[in-house]
Known about the structure:
Keywords: Hydrolase. With about 725 residues, the chain is of the alpha+beta class.
Amino acid sequence: xxxVTEHRTPHEGPRPGRRSAGxxxxxxxxxxxxxxxxxxxxxxxGAGGPARPAGGYGPDAGPAAAGHPAHSGPSxxxxxxxxxxxxxxxxxxxxxxxAGDGCLAGDGVPARPAAAPQPAxxxxxxxxxxxxxxxxPTAHDGHRASAEAADQARFAQSDRLRYxxxxxxxxxxxxxxxxxxxxxCRASVPAFADAVLCYLRDPLPVGDERTNAPVVLRxxxxxxxxxxxxxxxxxxxxxxxxxxxxxxxxxxxLVTDGPLASLLxxxxxxxxxxxxxxxxxxxxxxxxxxxxxxxMLPPGRRVIVAPLRGRRRVxxxxxxxxxxxxxxxxxxxxxxxxxxxTHTALGxxxxxxxxxxxxxxxxxxxxxLPSSLPRSTGVRLASRxxxxxxxxxxxxxxxxxxxxxxxxxxLVVGDVMGHSMTSAxxxxxxxxxxxxxxxxxxxxxxxxxxLDEQAQRLGSDHIATCVYGVYDPVSHRLVMxxxxxPPPVFxxxxxxxxxxxxxxxxxxxxxxxxxxxxxxPAPPGATLLLYTDGLVESRTRDVWSGVERLRERxxxxxxxxxxxxxxxxxxxxxxxxxxxxxxDDIALLAARFDGIPPRDVxxxxxxxxxxxxxxxxxxxxxxxxxxxxxxxxESTELLVSEVVTNAVRYAxxxxxxxxxxxxxxxxxxxDDAPTLPRMRHAAAGDEGGRGxxxxxxxxxxxxxxRLSTGKVVWFExxxxxxRPDPS
Length: 727
């Protein structure tokens, strides 16, 4: 029987049957035509067939194949050994390039096929076996070589596809520029290249905007494997003689008809380096190094320049470099580089659009919230706002502080359901409605009632919660109403923290439910904390547990400093939040009640009679003498006379006159006539119409506010500087 060598594919085991001694000897004899084993290749035990060709898609294709330690995968810094996290042994392994494969050869030399099994020893007494004559080249040998070449091509194609799948997914993870470029660097080094340089336009174009400014590229990120010692102890530099090419960190201004501009407009990756047709473009990119970068980059096809072309325009370029001891790039590697560059450019476009949306969302949120809190006499304010997460920069939470007549201030915190542009738009409309209603000096329950009606007009699917209160520094009282909002926490001057039990009411937008107000004392030194449910509620904690935790936090803060400062108190409250507690956005408003002492307030009721202006002047003169403000007596009496005269002319009920001494001297005159006074240009023969011109000329500020019971006209005067104490 003629001996025939059995051909074994990677997916076939040995066929059953008897083999001749000649065939066994032929299988055991090494084939001189077989290729030498690949350096650094570690065959998988039990795997037969030819090894996979070196395609540069794993660390074994790099320095490890030449006797240097292999890097199992990229990480955040040079020489890192991170894991991909999607397979059992990481996305890039030390002995096979890709996890789950384990059989990439090292230097482009195919591994020797597995030897056939050795024949068993002949039994005792059997006749000796004579060697069969060695056959010459046959047609079967050519078929076997073709099959091996087809297997190698198939394995190389499969490796490229798996590598591109891993790399593109890693690049696509990023939402901003840093994450996208980091994904490219981690996917490229050391699996595909030994170094990568990412250049982006500065500034990056956004959307469809067009500019006539010259195109400028700036190096945004680099990554490389560290220099490793050679077998003789010397170093194998990546970029000799310097760590970075000259001018790599300098901005590159593109010449309109230059070689680099032509390369980028072409849109296809090309080989760079010494002797390449595109060496001039590479020299322009790296800083116009003369003479085609002699000795600056590895020789041969070890440099790829890949343009980054986004959806509409070129956004940059990527430089991929291999060491001199690693196999050069092939034509197939240009296709891989093209895919990497395409996905990176699309990721850059996505990051730019995401950054623009984030900027718009931040600007919208800032516009919806007060830019600064008013400085009201008798109360100090502090606030905080935190969005829910980076992906939800806008929300429906808001806070506000609205000055009211009589040095009062309205405090409001609300929450519209949702974290979208729609929620922010509804929140802005409700906040504007609250400001308008507060200007009418309506009671808190009336404000919530009209706010509920406005929310129903905006749509039945818009639900919000709100708490609204008015603080009067003269009477030291606080009137509040609640519409389905978490209860405020009140910190007493003695350090006790309690929850204000307000009638809960229905949320804004439900309709048909009345609201109630509650009046509570607000002594000097007390602190009120208004907040949204994002501060006290999360997936792991209900609202009332969070409220109790907040109350304990305030009580603990008051034990250290009494009363605690508002800004540190807000930070202390937010510090109790953990990473798992940021499920919702948070609005926080803290108010410290100082009040106005009774000795700085004077208040009278006057009948609307002809003698009332004169009486008002006498009352004001006495109070100013008691306050040692005689220098303001003449001007204040004149202004009071003009305003009171106007009130007496239109009022049908007793008018009110109040003087307040704070940082300024404030005078308020109220009556039951709803018509607001306005300055008019009096003719030469008119007897009236000049009083408000006099008020506007002599007063520091003045104004008129419509109330639910009429109106109030007020003016302010600057207090004289205090004389220094002679002692």
